[in-house]
Amino acid sequence: MDRVTHAYDGPLALFLIGVRIHQPWKVRTVRRASAPMAGMIAELERNRAAAERGEEEHLGYLGSRTTIDLGGPTVIQWWRSVEDIYAYANSDSLRHRPAWLEFYKAAKDDPGAVTIWHETYTVPAGAVESIYSGPRPFGLARLAGVVPVRRRGETARERMAQHRPG
């Protein structure tokens, strides 16, 4: 089986966002808080595809995946930069701002039902290490393509050592 690593070489911003459901019986509030995410992801995916065809300016979103645990869903997003995330979040012409305002209304109406949360991580260019061994790429490799492991080092330590200062 071939061992590969992601082909992406630029800086990254890893953005985690989710809903923690504290009172699942409050279905209306849970739906109001979580429903807009699908539309935002669809908007970002449409932009990414259009940008790849040269039809639109790229918003910087590279892709995402969703995980679900007992507390609620978490969306893991890869972006080119934190600045791209901020630009998307603060745009009056895109879906995030209205969704955020709707969440605040829902939270005010029912403050104990859900928590919306996010975490943002800045990753300098080259400071990502990965390995994949199997028939289908996952995570960053699914979004950016793959290269043979030997290009970056045979072990995780070697792949990360290429990017450590000093």
The share of residues in extended strands comes to 25-35%
Order of helices and strands: EEHHEEHHEEHEH
The low-pLDDT segments are: none
Instruction: Tell me the number of strands.
Output: 7
Structural class of the secondary elements? alpha+beta
How many helix segments?
6
Largest beta sheet: what is the strand line-up?
3-4-2-5
Task: Write out key terms for the chains shown.
about 170 residues, alpha+beta, four-stranded antiparallel beta sheet, 7 strands, 6 helices, three-stranded antiparallel beta sheet, about 35% helix
Short description:
This protein has helices spanning 27-34, 36-52, 82-90, 96-109, 139-144, 156-161; strands at 3-6, 12-21, 61-69, 72-79, 114-123, 132-133, 146-148. It is built from 6 helices and 7 strands; from the N terminus they run E-E-H-H-E-E-H-H-E-E-H-E-H.
Commentary on this structure:
With 166 residues, the protein is of the alpha+beta class. The protein is built from six helices and seven strands, in the order E-E-H-H-E-E-H-H-E-E-H-E-H. The chain has helices spanning 27-34, 36-52, 82-90, 96-109, 139-144, 156-161; strands at 3-6, 12-21, 61-69, 72-79, 114-123, 132-133, 146-148. The strands form two sheets. It has a four-stranded antiparallel beta sheet. Helix 1 (27-34) runs antiparallel to helix 4 (96-109).
